[in-house]
Structure formats: structure tokens, C-alpha cells
Automatic annotation (TrEMBL):
<keyword id="KW-0325">Glycoprotein</keyword>
<keyword id="KW-0472">Membrane</keyword>
<keyword id="KW-1133">Transmembrane helix</keyword>
<keyword id="KW-0812">Transmembrane</keyword>
<dbReference type="InterPro" id="IPR003532">
    <property type="entry name" value="Short_hematopoietin_rcpt_2_CS"/>
</dbReference>
<protein>
    <submittedName>
        <fullName>CSF2R factor</fullName>
    </submittedName>
</protein>
<dbReference type="GO" id="GO:0004896">
    <property type="term" value="F:cytokine receptor activity"/>
</dbReference>
<keyword id="KW-0675">Receptor</keyword>
<keyword id="KW-0732">Signal</keyword>
<feature type="domain" description="Type I cytokine receptor cytokine-binding">
    <location>
        <begin position="11"/>
        <end position="96"/>
    </location>
</feature>
<dbReference type="InterPro" id="IPR036116">
    <property type="entry name" value="FN3_sf"/>
</dbReference>
<dbReference type="InterPro" id="IPR013783">
    <property type="entry name" value="Ig-like_fold"/>
</dbReference>
<dbReference type="InterPro" id="IPR015321">
    <property type="entry name" value="TypeI_recpt_CBD"/>
</dbReference>
<dbReference type="GO" id="GO:0009897">
    <property type="term" value="C:external side of plasma membrane"/>
</dbReference>
<dbReference type="Pfam" id="PF09240">
    <property type="entry name" value="IL6Ra-bind"/>
</dbReference>
Amino acid sequence: AGMNGTAIENFVCVIFNVSFMNCTWHVGRSATEDTQYFLYWGPSKKDVTECQNYVKDNSRRNTGCQFQNVTIENKRAYFLVNGSRSGQSIHMSDYIIVEKLTPPLNVTVNCTEASHRCNICWQPPRTSHVKRSSCFKYEIVIENK
């Protein structure tokens, strides 16, 4: 439902520092200056919360949102962007969620000269929703100095 060309475009949410989420989008191609967008998100359609901290463009239209204390449980998140244009509804497009991970935690290196070996240990980075360490793959770059 909604008028063609009013749906937001390039909707992306980035989670960083484990619990902060920044969502941005572009105004629909046919959206007029009176078009306004509202973002809701949560674990299901029945349990969503509206953005409390919108980012606005020069026409005072909402084009982004910043969330704090984000946790995504069960690997599921529901997003809804709705709004109106001269009293007519807009429609929704696809979305992308990206999480920028922190570095691994508690990295330790123990080397022994006798065996010419090093033991490198770490703990997985903290994330907003991934609980299994087997989900991560690591790459180690060793440089001789």
C-alpha cells in the first residue's frame, strides 16, 4: 500500500560499540516536503518502539535515527518505517543491518624461545546478538620486527 515513489530508499542500520544503533535512509523519489517518516523497531510486530532521536534533513523530514541500549535477541529484529504524505500513506522497502564488531577481548601472547613457538589466546568480541563463539572466524597477521 502507499503511493509509488514515497517509500524510503537505502535503509541501513549499523550497530556499533555493542549497543548503539544508527539507522539512515533516503527520502523516496516522489516524496514531497510534507512527507514525514517514522521508524519503529523491536523483536516482533507486536513489540516495537518508535525512535526517540531522529536525524532530520533540511526540509525537517526524518532521515535517520539513533538508538541506545540495543539488544537483538533470537537473531530477529522487526523494522517498520511508516508515515504520510498529504494525508496519504507511504510504503516500505527492504532493510540491511550491519554490526561493526569490537576487537577480540583479552588478547594474550606467550612465546618460548626454546621451542620457537607462541601461544596466542583471545576471547570473542562482545556483540549485540551473537552468543556462540563458533560464529566468528579470525585472521592473525604476524610481523617480524
